Amino acid sequence: MGIRALVAGGMSPVAALRTVTSTAARVLRVDADLGTVEAGKLADLIFVEGDPLARIEDLIRVREVMKGGSLHRPEELETEMGM
Fold it and tell me: What letter does residue 72 receive in the DSSP assignment?
């Protein structure tokens, strides 16, 4: 189930984001390394235009991606992946 489906089903955007990040990491027992943004943890991040806490659809408005410590534009990653 996608994050937008969770919100469509009645979950708040905050709860849906928590479900797919920190809660998922805890359930999978990888929360020592993943699930939240804090010093010493691994993280790939997306930077979006808008406010997904107010409007979950803004999650698809990706402007930049931090992957492996490097900042990328989405089209750069699409080219690398052959999309």
Answer: E
pTM for this model (two decimals): 0.78
Q: Are residues 59 and 32 in the same domain?
A: no
Q: Please answer whether residues 49 and 57 qualify as being in contact, where contact means their C-beta atoms are separated by less than 8 angstroms.
A: no
50 and 81 in a common domain: yes
- Alpha-carbon distance of 82 to 37, in angstroms, equals 29
How many domains, the chain? 2
Q: Contact, 25 vs 38, CB < 8 A?
A: no
Average pLDDT, integer, range 46-50? 96
DSSP per residue, 1-69: --HHHHHHTT--HHHHHHIIIIIHHHHTT-TTTSSS--TTS---EEEESS-TTT-GGGGG-EEEEEETT
pLDDT at 83: 62
Distance CA 76, CA 44 (A): 15
